[in-house]
Amino acid sequence: MGENAPTAADSRGSSATGSTSGSAAASADSGSGSGSGSGSGSTLAGKIDALFQVIRRPTREPYSHEEVARACREATGESFSATYLWQLRTGRRDNPTKRHLEALAQFFDVPVGYFFDDEQGAAITKELELLGALRDAGVRSMALRAVNLSPEDAATISDMIDVLARRERGSPSREL
């Protein structure tokens, strides 16, 4: 990697498996050239895109395809180009080697099972969605303020959020 590029051992701000230091919950901007990676965490492209969308540098900037590909080349010793990574991320290619997926998992600090195990992948995708939501300053502010509420008041706020979410989806809402 270049002199300013992060290493696999540096803090990427968040592991989708628990620790958060800020960058994963950093910015709501889209990832670098994300293309059409399905937006879904259920496809390989969707899973890779979700990693780019949520896991960021401590400066809140997204990682570039070149930067991630370089780290993967160094981790595997195999060819891994920025174009190939972009193709994986956008669904234009969908059959990477296990070593490539292991290198991506190492770079983004997620278990490799994220790519191979549907159950583990779904759990990590939910964690990534939460981290993505926490990038929003308003959501983060509400969450921090709710920490000091009694369990009863927190349940009331939760019920209110459910009602508002149903209203947003156009579902009939029940009264509180």
Descriptive overview:
The chain has 176 residues and is mostly helical. The protein has eight helices and no strands. The termini are far apart.
- Rg from C-alpha positions? 18 Å
Could you tell me the strand content as a percent range?
under 5%
- The overall pLDDT, averaged over residues, is 76
Tally the beta strands.
0
**Backbone shape:** elongated
Biggest sheet architecture: none
Low-pLDDT stretches: 1-39
Count of separate DSSP helical elements:
8
* H and E string: HHHHHHHH
Question: Helices, strands, pairings?
Answer:
Blueprint: H1 44-54, H2 65-76, H3 82-90, H4 98-108, H5 113-116, H6 118-134, H7 137-146, H8 151-169
Helix pairs in contact: 1-3, 1-6, 2-3, 2-4
Concise description?
The protein is an all-alpha fold.
Which key phrases capture this entry?
mainly alpha; disordered N terminus
